[in-house]
């Protein structure tokens, strides 16, 4: 056997062994993963439906032969988890009615049509929880308002809290739930095809919710600036209220069309003790960002001339970058 053939076989064997080791280790990590049904361990906050780990299926009686099963393929949901656990938390879900899947293309069209869901007029199915009653550890009945085809009726789901833990793969805080319930479709104006198709609809839900990161807090004392494109109008200086309740300065600078689009520099937050200095500085020197070779430039308030960046303007540029990134402590002096 040639030498290069031996090397090729050895390399292939090494790759196979590495893949086998990875495949052998991954299931062990998943199998040994545990979750806790202790509601006190769940961090309070906003959780959103994991788009890859959920299912909504429902079935109806078909000529007494069987329960015909369908599913919904597109949905979003938000869970507001309170420190009080299931009793104090709430959930809201929105389902795309056009995502109904019966596994029969012709039937899909009929269910989406005017005789049933009428998705052209009522594209969404919505559920908003209103009350939770505990029936045992990590379980209870969830009551909420279900809206289908424009009709809103209360429905009740039997809910089980499957557990909480950081996901072993994504490291994100994750909650798992199972739910099931039933309701009369006639109450929502969906009585078509009865009695060939039964009236009672059985629903089953599996869902995982992932905790969303908290919104970043505004850095104390650091102005929050942004560029907004504007269409027409002269150079103007106006005062507006900021998100923090302090006066804020807005400077709009319009450049000749040949030199680039106009932009608006907005200073949304100015600490009271620095408001005078910042307003004077912004009115005196407008910051203009041009797409193209000019890059960062300065508009002179005296003559409205465009001047390229040089050493004397580096401090102004540094101020801009500091404000954009909301650094703390402030680097503007």
Would you write up a description of this structure?
The protein is of the alpha+beta class. It folds into 2 domains: 173 residues, Lipocalin, CATH 2.40.128.110; 100 residues, no CATH class. Helix content is 17%, strand content 44%. β15 and β16 form a beta hairpin. The C terminus is likely disordered.
Largest sheet: 8 strands, antiparallel, barrel
Q: What is the count of DSSP helices, taking H or I runs of 4+ residues?
A: 4
Order of helices and strands: HEEEEEHEEEEEEEEEHEEEH
Helical amount: 10-25%
- Work out the number of β strands: 17
Radius of gyration: 30 Å
> Structural class from helices and strands?
alpha+beta
Task: Please describe the structure with a list of short key phrases separated by commas or semicolons.
alpha+beta, eight-stranded antiparallel β-barrel, about 325 residues, four-stranded antiparallel beta sheet, Lipid/polyisoprenoid-bd_YceI, TTHA0802/YceI-like_sf, Lipocalin, 17 strands, globular, single chain
How does the SSE layout of this entry go?
Blueprint: H1 3-31, E1 45-62, E2 66-72, E3 75-82, E4 85-96, E5 100-101, H2 105-112, E6 124-136, E7 139-148, E8 151-166, E9 173-184, E10 200-211, E11 225-229, E12 236-241, E13 247-253, E14 263-267, H3 275-284, E15 285-289, E16 296-300, E17 306-308, H4 314-324
Antiparallel strand pairs: 1-2, 1-3, 1-10, 2-5, 3-4, 4-6, 6-7, 7-8, 8-9, 9-10, 11-14, 12-13, 13-14, 15-16, 16-17
Pfam family, one: YceI
InterPro entries: Lipid/polyisoprenoid-bd_YceI, TTHA0802/YceI-like_sf
Keywords: Signal
